[in-house]
Amino acid sequence: MAGPQAPAYVLGVGTGPHDGSAALLRDGELVVMVEQERLSRRRYAMGESPSAAVHACLDDEGIGVADLDLIAVGWNAPELAAVEGEEFDETRFVRWLLGPSAAERARHVPVHFVDHHLAHAASAFHTSGLPRAAIIVADGRGESVATTLAVGTPDGIEVLKSWGLEHSLGHFYGWAAEWAGLTSWGAGKLMGLASYGQPRQQVPLVAGLEDYAVSTAPPPGTPVRLQYAVMRSRLRERFRTANFPFAPALSSDVMAYADFAASVQHALEEALLALARAARRMTGCDTVVLAGGVALNCAANGRLAESGLFREMWIPPVPHDAGVSLGAALLADRELRGTPRRTYSRMRGAFWGPRTPRSGPAAIGALAQFDVEECPDGTVARRTAECLADGLVVGWWQGRAEIGQRALGARSILCDPRRRDLLARVNRIKGREGWRPLALAVPEEHWGRFFEGEPPPAAEFMLTTRPLREAATRTVPAGVHVDGTTRPQVVRPAQTAFHRMLLDFHELSGVPTVINTSFNLAGEPMVLARGDAVETFLRSGLDVLVLDNVMVRRPGSPPPRTRAPRQRGLSFTPWNRSAATEAAGTGGDAG
């Protein structure tokens, strides 16, 4: 009698010039995923092989490379080499990807190369749980395209239209951030700066009804290897002659670029809306999924959600390049398992990091000089809420890490949202610019107190902005940006410890939300292992570190303050828009 069938394993790998990652599927289900930067501790993992991420996934599942049925790569590396005028050697590539000895053991494992934008599209559509959806992919570049419209159905993904590298929205926005002194990796900073200005300037990104163009594109026939240098040079010349303050990178005077940032942001939003209108018409779908680095732009996502073009919008927790490992694996799984009409359920949360991450630096022993308390079962949430209500800033490490660039309650820095001074303090602790906003984590059942309507799917992963109700802005000043919006995270009861802590903080303070930002310092990736958290705690000004059920308090940290008065806020019935609007007076139109 035959024994049980061995599981089918598909390894997805992201191998681009930045944000490498690995994702492992067992019988079509995601079991573990991790970004290379979390392991190497180098932000964006620029130019790195994702081999550490690969082996972290395999170790977590307890298998080796020889147990894999297929390796799927989220870049079509042979095509990319051809576009760049280079030769491609698959054997050398696999050795770089896995390491020499692992590559030898994996000689029998086929390697499948997936077009970059198709991998992005799959990472969004095949995690959405939607039977049919329009797909928008926009980033810096794929092999030869920068923007793609597609449609997803049970039969698969069909590309409908693409825009070339010369019209890259991702590079346009990144180079604009560089011009403003925020570096080409400062897209998130430029988005935050935009709220301080008005879109009064003309920028070389023009959108029509269903199309867009970057007007500084290089002349036709420019070799691909030279296109970006030409585009960047033309763009900088345009900014120098047409956009105040007519000079690059005056970082000591960043607010001089506020109108410039607002104009660039507005142009990006108009381009995204044009793409959305085209996708709606071409697909006939009333649902849409987004992927690519541009999908990290929360303000643009919020504008699209408010446009009413689609009934529902889904963005995965890893829309940027780290997500192509997952997308490539999902596409390859359909082929491997011979189920071309296979559909996938909606992704359950973002907590897919390795269950047994490396212990990290040998810094845990250094905690002997600190006040260490082991909290009895079920009490760490309450003790953490008490620290937050006392005005302390907490580093929070719980269970499996979240994937993506947003801290969602596994690797977070937390503080009391009622105190605006803590916004400045957290930014100082992290080494961030003082004008940058922080986000709010809100329990699902209290969403209606702060926002109109139901929480959108993108709010689960902190990938959209929403205006706060006017009545709510006065209770959470540390979580309100200058335009009256915040980047909310909806926290569901399934996220047990974090959700419990929010409810305990509500009981203590009267406010059912806390400030939640990523557990890292400037220029570093989020912490992964316990040792990473300890080392970051030791180098920072955090008052408290929580490691699962262990609480570590810094000697000499600010003593517990007299707690702020408990807020006797308005009571809202979740999802009851009319009652909440009446109670709030203005319906929360604060921005």
Secondary-structure map:
Elements: E1 9-14, E2 21-26, E3 29-35, H1 36-40, H2 51-61, E4 70-73, H3 77-83, H4 90-98, H5 100-105, E5 111-113, H6 116-125, E6 133-138, E7 145-153, E8 156-164, H7 169-179, H8 187-194, E9 205-207, E10 212-214, H9 224-242, H10 258-283, E11 287-291, H11 298-306, E12 312-314, H12 324-336, E13 371-374, H13 380-389, E14 394-397, E15 411-415, H14 420-430, E16 439-443, H15 447-450, E17 466-467, H16 470-473, E18 485-486, E19 489-491, H17 496-509, E20 514-518, H18 530-539, E21 544-547, E22 550-553, H19 577-584
Parallel strand pairs: 1-4, 4-5, 6-11, 11-12, 14-21, 16-19
Antiparallel strand pairs: 1-2, 2-3, 6-7, 7-8, 9-10, 13-22, 14-15, 15-20, 16-20, 17-18, 21-22
Helical/strand content category: alpha/beta
Task: Enumerate the spans where pLDDT stays under 50 for 5 or more consecutive residues.
Answer: 568-591
Which sequence of strands runs across the widest sheet? 13-22-21-14-15-20-16-19
Instruction: Tell how many strands the DSSP assignment holds.
Output: 22
Count of helix runs: 19
Which whole number gives the mean pLDDT? 90
Shape: globular
